Amino acid sequence: MCAVLHSQLFGALVWILVAATRVPLPLLQGWVMFVSVTACFLSILFLCVFLFSYTHRIAVDWNQMDFLFHGATFVFYFGAFLLQAATTSLHNFPRRFNSTQEKLLDDHEYNISIAASIFAFATTICYGCSTALALRRWKL
Question: Domain ranges in the chain?
């Protein structure tokens, strides 16, 4: 439960930090935004299912669903972390506007992108721990 709350908090920070930049590479950072927003909302929905005891009303193996949800989210967040780190690594890559050249990310956006990469990694670790714990619950 604690790992889920941390992953929601870190995921929301990834969402906010990526949105705070100009999003210089929409294809890469668009996927990061999609994963962070979707995972945040689905995690809140999944948490509400448990909090409001819908698990007793719906006949599903909830331990298996917990494992599948966190496992899939872990895989998607790992990909989002890699894409965010790739965007951050292109800090000095020149970008052409009309006839001028400037860096892909200015120094302020570079710092924000580093923070987003760190929080994406932390979120990936949290979802990985949740996946391992869910597997343990499911198989016992």
Answer: 2-139
